[in-house]
TrEMBL record:
Name the UniProt record assigns to this protein: Porin
Pfam families linked to this entry: Porin_4
Record membrane topology: Multi-pass membrane protein
Keyword annotations: Cell outer membrane, Ion transport, Membrane, Porin, Signal, Transmembrane, Transmembrane beta strand, Transport
Native species: Paraburkholderia sejongensis
Domain Porin: 12-347
Subunit structure: Homotrimer.
Keyword Ion transport: yes
Length: 379
């Protein structure tokens, strides 16, 4: 009887274990994307460069693990570990972090998803619908490098969707736990300092509505300063030190898109405000506008483009940039693409057309052309 009982117990445990395994999954995924790029007026002397960009093409290269376990009753445990890397040299992105793009664990339920760790802010998610070009080498990141890098450490996030309406919010106790920076020109801001609860704090909120034909979105995000934090406007003017927890770097955004058969149109506005407690440092504002379109010529051939304009009155810097891109899908996972962009700087501005890893800052007032041929594979 004792032996029989043990066999029955073992069988029951094995059955439960098998059922649990059947209800959980882990997915390996990634994007490998690179090509050859030409950039004119890539330095102050006006020289051009031909290179393999290190950061992005159509999309930044990455690999990751995504897991889901059914807990019953509509609840599930989730996790994401995502690593960015530069295909040119095989080195890790995001300051050399192993999982620099995302590292989170959470619970998904009928009432929304609650997650903890290093994750995207609501600014990133709110722009996904209307920003046609996205994290492309010639996209919004050329004029504001924070946009494709809008992620923070020590973060608690919540998102929930009901009848097409999505609300999201996140709060970071210290946005740069590793001390390697979260975005170019932002400095480092480790945070979670005893006695200084607002130092290096970040928070953001998002509200959007998505329907089959159209969508609208709005978001707001605020970053607080710390001893080695900074705010770079990427226009050639030196970054503004944000050394006090009272200093603020905030972004507000509204956008919309519409789908018309094979055509998608998107447009938006992003307002940035940097306010410092130090009387010697001026408060600075910028306004970034974008409008884009995407058209499926055939199911395998897509043509899209976007026009951007940024204005910084305090720095007296302005730029207008236009990007045109064509993508041909060789299969569901592999594509080739060709794209070109032209950026016109005002007399004092030094914006760069390429977000491909730096090193292409022109002389003040110089215009730039960027051209790239690339290959992308997803798995």
């Amino acid at each position: 009887m004792q032996a029989s009982a043990r066999l029955l117990l073992c069988g029951a445990l094995c059955a439960v274990s098998g059922a649990a395994a059947a209800q959980s999954s882990v997915t390996l995924y990634g994007i490998v994307d690179t090509g050859i790029e030409y950039v004119s007026h890539a330095n102050a002397a006006g020289n051009s460069v031909v290179r393999m960009p290190g950061v992005t093409g159509e999309f930044p290269s990455r690999w990751g693990l995504r897991g889901n376990e059914d807990l019953g009753g509509g609840y599930s445990a989730i996790f994401t570990l995502e690593s960015g890397f530069n295909l040119r040299g095989g080195d890790s992105g995001q300051g050399g972090r192993l999982f620099g793009r995302q590292a989170l664990v959470g619970v998904k339920s009928p009432y929304g998803t609650l997650s903890f760790g290093r994750q995207y802010t609501m600014t990133y998610y709110a722009l996904l619908g209307a920003d046609i070009i996205g994290p492309d080498i010639y996209g919004l990141g050329s004029l504001d490098a924070y946009i494709p890098n809008a992620r923070v450490d020590n973060s608690v996030a919540y998102t929930g969707t009901w009848s097409g309406v999505t609300f999201g919010a996140n709060y970071s106790f210290g946005r740069d736990a590793a001390g390697t920076g979260n975005s170019p020109g932002q400095g480092t801001c480790t945070g979670s300092v005893a006695g200084r609860p607002t130092e290096c704090r970040e928070w953001s909120v998002m509200l959007k509505y998505d329907a089959p034909v159209f969508g609208v979105a709005a978001s707001y995000e605020e970053l607080r300063g710390g001893a080695t934090a900074a705010a770079n406007f990427f226009d050639g003017v030196a970054p503004i030190p944000l050394t006090s927890a009272a200093d603020k770097d905030s972004r507000a955004h509204v956008s919309a898109y519409v789908n018309i058969d094979k055509l998608k149109l998107g447009a938006g506005w992003l307002n940035r405000r940097v306010d410092t407690a130090a009387a010697a440092l001026p408060d600075v504002r910028s306004n970034l506008f974008f409008v884009g379109a995407s058209y499926y010529v055939t199911p395998a051939f897509i043509v899209d483009g976007e026009v951007y304009h940024i204005d910084n009155e305090q720095h007296d810097t302005r730029a207008t940039m236009g990007t045109l891109r064509s993508t041909y899908l060789l299969s569901k996972r592999t594509a080739v693409y060709a794209q070109a962009s032209y950026l016109g700087n005002s007399a004092k501005a030094r914006y760069s057309v390429s977000g491909g890893g730096g090193g292409t800052t022109p002389a003040a007032g110089a215009n730039q052309t960027g051209v790239m041929l690339g290959l992308r594979h997803s798995f």
